[in-house]
Amino acid sequence: MKKFLIFTAFAMIFLISCNNSSKTTPDTDSDSDPWTEDSDHNSENDDDNDEIPDSADTDTTHDQQSYCFPLTDSADSGEEDSAVVEGLDYESGFIYLEENEYSLSERDDKSGRARIWYNFQPADKNPQKKPLFVFFNGGPGSSSAIVFLYNTAKKTGDQAFSGEGVADNETNWNQLGNLLYVDARQTGFSYGIIDDPADESNRSAYFSTSNFNVFTDAADFIRVILRFLKNHPAIKSNPVVLAGESYGGTRATAILNIMQNVADYAEKHRVFYDKALFEEIAGHFRETDPSIEGMPSKKDVVKQFARQILIQPLVMGDTQMATAGELLERSDSPLYTIQEETGKQYKKCENNSWNCSKYNNALTYVQNAGRDIYSYRRPYNWLFEYTDVATAKMLQMPMFGEFILNDPTKINELYAKNREGAFRYDEVDGYTRNFKKDTAFENIPEVERIIMQARIEQRNAHPLSSGNLESVFGDLPAYDEYFVDLSYAINFKFYQASVTPYSKINGEMFLENIKTSCTFITQAEEDIIIYAKGIPESTKKFSGVSDVENGEDFFTVHFSDGKAATVTFPFYPESSHSVSVNQPKKFFNDVKNWL
Question: Where are the alpha helices (DSSP H) in 267-333?
């Protein structure tokens, strides 16, 4: 603890900016009315003129750039490198989540039990002094396999480097810090727990908005992170860097907003209330800093939780999608490149007489032209067919152990005999791997229908190998499975909640967060799903934003109160939605320089 405080004080003396932007105006206290979420479940009807909340717990002594001090080089200076630290070794397992009562949008609810899978990989040198990177993919409903298997961890399954096996990863982020990979509830290796899972009605009840919405999802991850840190005292106080891809950007936004404003949430000034969660957050900070009494302030929290790396993220809700649609109709849009290369004519919405979503129209066009909406230069569904290769490897013993770098046969909760109450699916009519259900499409936004139908078609045409884990860990009932790469039943539920990934509250939280968080967002040229140019442009549609300055590798949001926040925004000219798949070396170096 003493070393960490010394390091923090040293770093704060030598403050540097995240980028070359000018210093921002210091924050001032605000006593404005607390903000709440719009009750309309269909975010497509939200007004574009969205409100940005004032923080009820704003630090008066630090500005946004203060939180971007170096996390790597200064930590190693003057001390002998060490790769072995007691309690910090390659490790995998599960963190148990109990039932938790909470309220969302003034509705009382309760989340169910689960075991959440994690894989931990310590930094190559001096792990006790390095930040903790927490990785997760999005969906919602996706495992974190892609970011884990493709060129961030110690080993890579990328067939471009490993062939049919597993290879050392030259761009492993262990060179930068400690790595923690987490699978969301009911995805990847994580699984739900209920009484009598053989009863289909019990399983169906679990698949509800009680367990699957933006805020309970964020709460799950906060609990996992804090409990992991508690179990690893050597890094308990170290800076935490959230690294989320796609919907993972929404998740990271909610995580940071809850953490940094926990005192305000605990006073019931926000849309979400979870007393047990807030007490767990407070307990963590009281243990790391005994001078803290009650709920930690924003100033307390940002010492540890104030950095985020967002890979092609959804962060501005439906406004981001609508703005991307507008940009995709401009003359410099990549859709015209597709038209030239394929001969398939692109018709803009403005030329049609029917009511047309510009964004949805763009996605449909890309698919009809035979191109991948995640990587427009490549064939239809290229990204998932490519990344399925490494996922299939991970489900094979002994490659599973090679990837996680510890012995999976020693993980008790993996064994069938120890999975009491475990389940994956509500129905078992071939749904586990064939993805034939489609009735729920009627209740989700059109854009999600476009995305999910493409994914289901891809999975039906190319079923993911089930691997040989059952031969080691035991046979499972039909409603359970060792690994699930994507659960679209989860995806559907997220869009039926009072707060969805498209709700404008996500953009409000993101804009609040970047004032006190050092933020890195990728700008992948080939991605149409998250057309990254739409992120800075969409911020202009929120009241409280006066202007946005776009630089070569950054953008700065200027707020009407005179404050500003700069986001690092590097361009990846050869990358799909998954930047670590296509340009891992540049991605690694950009993050290294950003740190």
Answer: 275-288, 298-301, 317-327
